[in-house]
Amino acid sequence: MGYTKDQLLARLQELQIDFTKHEHPVVLTVEAQAKHVGHLNGALSKNLFLKDKKHRFYVVSALAKTNVDLKVLSQRLGLGKGGLRMAPEEALAEVLQVPLGCVTPFALVNESARCVSLLLDQGFKTQECCFFHPLSNDTTIALNARGLDKFLSSIGKQPIYVDLEANPPVGKDQPPDLASLVPSDAIALPAQPDKTAPQQVSDMNHAPVNNKSTGVSAKAVKPSTDVRKEKLSNGISSSNSFADPEKFVEDFIEKTSSLVISEITEENVKQYGDKLGEVISNTIRKKLATELKSTATMFKNTAYSEGFSACTLRQAKLQ
């Protein structure tokens, strides 16, 4: 179990870090938070939980007004333009051990987040104090960059401040300036059950094969073994885009998470209250059911085709 809000605040006091605490209703956006603490002396922060294609995780903590371009940031880390994406919601619980809306540099206090890379906005250093959630979005604490640095140092994290709006060129003679901040270790999340798994191999290899010639006087000419192998190989490789269950599950989870997040707005919270969960569930079913059925069908057809191709290719090798 991860740190609680009270445990974190107690640790800040033990470290003799000056901070002020402001309690308020649960908020899910920076805009909602601003309604409760925006009038106070301090700068609001936004915090992004990201992952790359190799399952390495990042927390990017920036001033609310800072423009963070993920494509540019991805290139600066040496990950290519599309190397960064929002981390799936289950990673919040497994890695940061915080609920939705509570991403914060303070979550790195948990042992499960020891491999997460933290990028801090250099703009924090110019502020008298900054606002963060202390692992719970019903409270905001205000502290300065020196206090944040002291906390991070106490958990073995070196505070690293970068210009998140910079866009330096990256090329052959200009290596990515933030490449050293890429974590060395990946974090494996528990496997999610795949309810759309293709049929077993034993069901794939029983496709009917019609070997009858349609001509009467003409001789049926078999293609050479090499040609047949080439055609079969091409057929198999072309279907690989639908034959990766792990990618399918990851993409589906990402779409679901994005849809959930888009539905959790202050307006919807006020309108539906305790029934918001039911409303979101119905929305997900409506918007994703057709796409999921279509993708599952493609997986089934791909599995069937690859099983048949593999069987035929084996026969070709034996001839």
Primary descriptors:
about 325 residues; 10 helices; 8 strands; YbaK/aa-tRNA-synth-assoc-dom; ProX/PRXD1; YbaK/aa-tRNA-synt-asso_dom_sf
Summarize the helices and strands and which ones pair or pack.
Elements lengths: L4 H10 L5 E4 L6 H8 L7 E8 L4 E7 L6 H7 L7 E3 L2 H8 L20 E5 L8 E3 L6 E5 L1 H10 L6 E2 L38 H4 L20 H14 L6 H19 L2 H7 L3 H43 L1
Parallel strand pairs: 3-5, 5-8
Antiparallel strand pairs: 1-7, 2-3, 2-4, 6-7
Helix pairs in contact: 7-10, 8-10
Explain the overall architecture.
It is a single chain. The chain has 319 residues and is of the alpha/beta class. Helices cover 41% and strands 12% of the residues. It contains ten helices and eight strands. It has helices spanning 5-14, 30-37, 70-76, 89-96, 145-154, 201-204, 225-238, 245-263, 266-272, 276-318, and strands spanning 20-23, 45-52, 57-63, 84-86, 117-121, 130-132, 139-143, 161-162. A five-stranded mixed beta sheet has the order 4-2-3-5-8. Strand 2 (45-52) and strand 3 (57-63) form a beta hairpin. The protein is globular and about 55 Å long. 23% of the residues are buried. The model is unreliable at 194-242 and 308-312 (pLDDT under 50). Residues 24-150 form the YbaK/aminoacyl-tRNA synthetase-associated domain. Belongs to the PRORSD1 family. GO terms for molecular function: aminoacyl-tRNA deacylase activity. This is YbaK/aminoacyl-tRNA synthetase-associated domain-containing protein.
